[in-house]
Amino acid sequence: MNAEPQKPRSGRYDAGVMKYKDMGYFDLDYLPKDTDVLAVFRITPQDGVDAEEAAAAVAGESSTATWTVVWTDRLTASEKYRAKCYRVDPVPGADNQYFAYIAYDLDLFEENSIVNLSASVIGNVFGFKPLKALRLEDMRLPIAYVKTYAGPPTGIVVERERLDKFGRPLLGATVKPKLGLSGRNYGRVVYEALKGGLDFTKDDENINSQSFMHWRDRFLYCMEAVNRAQAMTGEIKGTYLNVSAGDMEQIYERAEFAKQLGSTIIMIDLVIGYSAIQSISRWCRRNDMILHLHRAGHSTYTRQKSHGVSFRVIAKWMRLAGVDHIHAGTVVGKLEGDPATTRGYYDICREAFNPQALQHGLFFDQDWGGLRRVMPVASGGIHAGQMHQLLHHLGEDCVLQFGGGTIGHPMGIAAGATANRVALEAMILARNEGRDYLAEGPAILAAAARGCTPLAQALEVWKDVTFNYTSTDSPDFVPSVSVA
Ligand SMILES: O=C(COP(=O)(O)O)[C@H](O)[C@H](O)COP(=O)(O)O
Ligand SMILES: [Mg+2]
After folding, report:
1. Is 33 a catalytic residue?
2. Please, where in the chain does CATH 3.30.70.150 lie?
3. What is 25-146's CATH topology?
4. What pTM did the predictor assign?
5. Best substitution site from 202, 374, 379, 407 to test ligand 1's pocket, by max atoms within 8 Å of Cβ?
6. pLDDT digit string (tens) for 95-137?
7. Does the domain at residues 155-459 carry the CATH identifier 3.20.20.150?
8. Distance (Å, rounded) from C-alpha 76 to C-alpha 81?
9. Are 361 and 381 in contact (CB under 8 A)?
């Protein structure tokens, strides 16, 4: 990769350093096989580094290569095992950025292991000095590989059946404040929110077992609240009990206790790691438990366009690993989420097949091989006044989760929940009647609020709250551009 590192060469296996392109990691004539794992990386080479050589290096360093020729390659089927960069395109509108398409033979990957997949494609290569920045934009996972995973333990269809809730998004709330409530007070928040009309409440990402509230207390008070709210309303209710813990033994212990108490759902944070996620997914499958995933930590590496891993890749990995819910953005709320990019994430979760959709950031067709569908969760700075936008952007099969937007209601938590439930049902009714609910949204909400004081109060308090900031991660292609 250096400016002049290469000595004159007589053969591929002479000792020394040679270009990655010459080592077999670059082949524009290579036709990817249906069984290949495909990846597209956004590459920003250092100044003076040739884009094709940088792309070949990414293929090399994410598969078999090291920095120098090794004769031991000849003891392997190295032609087959070398990843091949088969295409390099400049990124539209960007300076010195390239999309490098790389194909990996299926034999390079252990079945049913996100750990193994990620250790190759995001293993060493992100620290490679000749690159200024590198981003894994998307992957195509061949159906032969997809079928080595069991996928979500429950899926959208079965979740709806277990909960007996159809034809509308589910409603949830994250208990606030995030930290500090005692078990008893925490349970009161859960009870009020569920009684007021929500389907779910949720532990926040950083609620585990701190000194102010031991996990067992939380589970006991929360399940008491769930049971009372169910008795009160005649509806099925749930609360995502966060079982994340410092080791797998404790995660299982907490999950077992949640099951003993009759919870329908448990929760984990993305930061517990891929092996732990696959393990608890297997446990959920055996125990008929819905598995909620909070993507805690993802923005450290998903948010910046030039470096890291796109969340669409994480969403694909999580559908394979087997979660039933995944936080996937709100578009209109407080956290990053360009509408077109978010649509791509939702499609990855919910469709049986994703056709290439560059305008949504989807670079490849993806067949999900019959894996169950993941319920996307919209959460973070949303409120009842946005109901028409939420339904428009996110559709019906999702959870809309209002933390502050329930618990911050001036008349209390139950009133906040009622405001959200009434706003949602009014919007679903308008949609089902064939009205243009997006355009008429504010009028539909205002009409519903005339018969619902909690909704009127919610609209009054939060009417001007929006989060209109420039997105850090929007697609590079507009619909008319084709790179097929
Ligand atoms: O606590 C909240 C939201 O609280 P509130 O509703 O009060 O804003 C969640 O942790 C975020 O939604 C996570 O973000 P994302 O869903 O984007 O992963
Ligand atoms: Mg949170």
Report:
1. no
2. 25-146
3. Alpha-Beta Plaits (3.30.70)
4. 0.95
5. 379
6. 999 999 999 999 999 999 999 999 999 999 999 889 999 999 9
7. no
8. 8
9. no
